[in-house]
Design a protein that fits this description.
homodimer; alpha+beta; L-amino peptidase D-ALA esterase/amidase; Ubiquitin-like (UB roll); 2 domains; nine-stranded mixed beta sheet; six-stranded mixed beta sheet; 33% helix; 27% strand
Chain lengths: 408, 408
């Protein structure tokens, strides 16, 4: 497995592009992205579990039910959520506009939207921009970068990755982008992510590979506990790597799953690192658990706690809040055997053993917690050997600032 | 039902007091409280549902299992949680010290603690302060006020109330104090509250009255989604009002329940209003629901959403976040019929109808949301007539500041 350049366009046969179509008032950033495969793709998607679903989620779920897709169109600046029948019509018009410009069936187009909720989507701006958007498509990094820019909102960092693996002597590539900084909580496919691959893979296996990867990556991230109305992860596989098609749960499938999981984890970490206002990426690994679900529930509660997040911002080794969060997580564990360590490139410090206080150097703890990337390592020291890692960020003044007046 | 002065000491036969014993480093605030009844009381308690329970919670739960109690001792500045066997021993020594000074059985003493988690409790300071604490007891407002001060931590406002009702020609009084500003989330008896009454009431009915009142008050408050390790609500009823003892679910019982519910709601609102760093009290009422539980689940999700809280801080009428929070709450409802209004003393503004945007005055919305007390009124406009109100506060820079370095 090797990291490569090219992003979405690293796999064979994919083009991407982005333009400013005017949904965002200012033209300082693109707001409309298009991703297209030269060939019909096998496709899989995962969507928000929020009961309030954006029109784009409803339309994409309907279109991808066939397991086939060839293009993704996505706007930023407007979530097209809580927009009623008119919103649903706007999402369908986005798919039709892209399909017409690309001469494909509208049912082969996935639609994404992100931005403010409850404002009618000016779909005529999307339609008017289609000729420019199609002209802007390219099969190189430039096209990928323009599409990525066009899906970003409060993101301050790019979330992109491409990997390469060998399957039976053929080179298979996976490229991906994601956006997300706020309204991020691990209970679904969190945020927007679009993934391309030139692997040949059967729809059912692509779907299960995506579910597994998302469960161990995007679904283990939290920024603020709010599950968005617009979350969507879509993967398109066009088969142009010419590997022997993956059609059963064999070694090649597992190799593909491992690569896809790495892609998703890379983006999930990037989302947590770019959490609105965040100054630190906080990774929490819970080990020594009887099963992975228990470890995950505990780790999620820790990175999701406002008090733990605020303590990380203050580089304060307030480990009692970690035990408190574990205690209300709903997971079953014995508090009396828990140990807690903090680790970063500045070092490592054990602050709790047997569920209780032990003497530690406050100076070392401060130094460890002052780094940009912090690990919280919790060992349940119980029967099991299962572990799980979840990702979050600190809670800062800037989170409040960004979200105090988002619509302005 | 009439509001009266006197707090904890308003009911007949109760004395209270507070001193500085040295658990807090600075002597600018009392840190040890004592509440005593002249006569043996019927008592009930509710405790944190956090799996990690403070030693004080374990000891009080054990002592109150008898349904009898005569005194409460409570310290601030140290939570005595995650302190192992030594912590349990310290909590028992607190009960014994109070019992010895008052010449009662240690099993008749409830113990409360609040403050930092995971630091050994210097119980010898409590023991040394007992003579001063007993001398400080008084049956007037002064004693009540000293006890209240002694249980406060990051609280900036006093949470206190006393009410009077008539039961069969006898005057029955209820007095109460509470503390709580952070680590507040509605999943239990949140925070510390001690309630006195001179009502004569059977243990089982006192217990059910407390459970009902707490379920509609403290359990409907959230500040930050973190359920504390030390939460405790204890009520002592000494019977000195000489009302005919409440021994069945009759009109007098319902009158007592209503008064107790008012007492708890008053304190619950005060806790939300004093949420760490808060500038606004946010009350959310969901109506038109099929059942009260659905209404409560939705209202809790709304006041608990970091994004809704940040929008309240910014006086931003971002109602899409309200629908988003409802959507991930887990409650069953149809988004398509929901209406949302904001109300305060500056006026009222409808911002969402039929689950979608309607035109509204941004200026009016800004004015309404700029008040210190805001109501979010959500009508599901569905079959039912059930409603519920939950309370929270805005998310501000100061919440982050207070919790970024709490231990220093």
């Amino acid at each position: 497995m090797k990291q490569i350049d090219g992003g979405l366009c690293a796999p064979k046969g994919f083009r991407a592009g982005g333009v400013w179509c005017g949904i965002r008032k200012k033209n300082d950033k693109r707001d409309l992205a298009l991703i297209v495969s030269d060939r019909l793709c096998t496709a899989a998607g995962m969507y928000t579990t929020n009961k309030v679903k954006a029109a784009s989620v409803l339309v994409t779920r309907e279109h991808l039910a066939s397991g086939r897709c060839q293009a993704v169109i996505c706007n930023s600046g407007n979530a097209n959520a809580c927009t009623g029948e008119a919103g649903l019509d706007a999402a369908r018009r986005m798919a039709r506009a892209a399909a017409a410009a690309l001469s494909i069936d509208p049912a082969l187009v996935a639609v994404g939207s992100t931005g403010v909720i409850g404002v009618p989507l000016p779909v005529e701006k999307v339609e008017a921009a289609m000729p420019d958007l199609v002209s802007a498509l390219s099969a190189d990094y430039k096209g990928h970068a323009a599409a990525l820019e066009a899906i970003m909102t409060t993101d301050t960092r790019k979330k992109e990755i491409a990997l390469e693996i060998e399957l039976d002597g053929k080179t298979v590539r996976i490229g991906a982008i994601a956006k997300g900084a706020g309204m991020i909580h691990p209970n679904m496919a969190t945020m927007l992510s679009f993934i391309t691959t030139d692997a040949a893979i059967a729809p059912a296996l692509l779907d299960s590979a995506l579910r597994l990867a998302v469960s161990r990556s995007f679904n283990r991230v939290t920024v603020d506990g709010d599950t968005s109305t617009n979350d969507m992860v879509v993967i398109l596989a066009n088969g142009m790597a010419e590997n022997a098609p993956i059609e059963k749960d064999d070694a090649n499938y597992l190799r593909f799953c491992a690569a896809l999981e790495q892609v998703c984890i890379n983006l999930a970490r990037a989302i947590a690192r770019d959490g609105e206002g965040a100054t630190r990426l906080v990774s929490c690994t819970v080990s020594g658990a009887g099963d992975e679900k228990t470890a995950e529930t505990l780790a999620k509660a820790i990175v999701g706690s406002s008090l733990v997040k605020a303590a990380c911002f203050g580089a304060d080794a307030n480990w009692g809040r970690i035990l408190c969060a574990m205690g209300y997580s709903g997971a079953d564990f014995e508090p009396e055997t828990v140990s807690v360590r903090f680790r970063s490139k500045a070092g490592e410090v054990l602050v709790c053993k047997g569920g209780a206080s032990i003497p530690f150097s406050e100076d070392l703890a401060k130094a460890v917690l002052s780094e940009e990337e912090i690990d919280i390592l919790v060992d349940l020291e119980q029967a099991g050997a299962a572990s799980a890692t979840c990702w979050g960020c600190d809670l800062t003044y800037d989170y409040v600032k960004i979200n105090g007046d988002y619509r302005s």
